[in-house]
Every structure is written in C-alpha cells, then in structure tokens.
Amino acid sequence: MDVKSRDHDTSVSVRVKKRTTGIVGLNLLLDGGFPEGTLIMIYGTPVAGVDLSAKQFWRAEGGEEGTYLINEGDVEVGMTDVNDLHPEMYIPQMAGGRIVVDSLSTIIIKYGIDEALKFLKKTREEMRNRGANMLFIVYTGIHTPMEMTRIMRAADLVIEFKTDIHQAEIERTLAVHKIKDAAAPQRLLPFIITDKGIEASTTSRVV
Asked: What is the signed CA dihedral for 54, 194, 142, 146, rounded to 10 degrees?
C-alpha cells in the first residue's frame, strides 16, 4: 500500500512539462506538445511545410520569448541572421524558450556533419539546463543516409513532413518517428497549408 502510494506520488511529481508546438493537431498527437528541454528535428523537402511549422513554433501564442536563427534564405522581421557565424556562436544568440535553427542542413554543408553533431550535443545540454526547446530543420535529398541516421540519433524528437500526390490531389501528412523515453504515435497526422500556415487535425479529416 505504501509502495503503491509512493510510486503514484513519484509519477505525478515527475510529469514532464510540455511546450505547445504551435499546431493544435500536433499538440493533441503529442499529448500536450514538445517535452521541455528537448531537441526537435523536423525534416522534409523545401516545399513540404517544414519552414512553416518552424515559424509557427517560434511564434506560438502565449507571449513567450523565442529566437529564430536563420543561416540561409530571407530574413524576416524578428529573425536573427547567423549566416556568417560559426555554429559555436549560435548558443549565445539563443534567448527564450523557443529556439529555431533554419537550417541544420546549411551547417552540415558548410562545416561538415561532425561539427553539426557537436553543435547539437552542446545545444542539448543548454536546452535541458534552461528547460527550453530547440527545433531544427533538415532538408531531405541532400544528405547521405548515414548523416540522416546520425542526426536522428542526436535528436529527442523526429518528425517527418510527407507529401504524396494522388492523381489531381496533394496529400500532406506528419509522421512522428521518435520521442525520447516515450512511445511514438502509431498514426499519421494529416494537414493542409493555408494562408495562415499549417492546420492539422487528429481525426481522419483535415479541418
């Protein structure tokens, strides 16, 4: 009796805090959002919606401060241009609980996979100490299978953005392949891209 009570109290006290993903359907799929202190890898083609997902995470409601580090592409208002910085200089730029790196692919191309993994290792320690989250983008089709495997092993969560074309219709889905210390969802999450960004539902129909 006492042991059961103690086990119950422990499970409640260590319940993981979550940070919203910025996408309602993904929050539901992940039982509340991203566990605080984790690294999130999102990957797909440049038109699969990964950049929109990253921006929605960065700009999620609640007024929480965040940092969007961009090393290639158009720098929007509020983003930090780190194109000329070595990855070692990224961490001092990270403020708030919502950090985005767009993209890890550029770091790999410029500095190599070993430097990219060293950056992820240092950043993981920083995120865990602060209870923050870093979401980073990896683009498919430009890295070797071994590089993709090493990146996935370094991430706490791995989410794939998939695009399939069926006759005249485009079908977009998310697949959560990995969640550290938890079971990954066994179903795909359908989503659509609107003028406001990504909208997803945990039902079979996208709303």
From this structure: 60
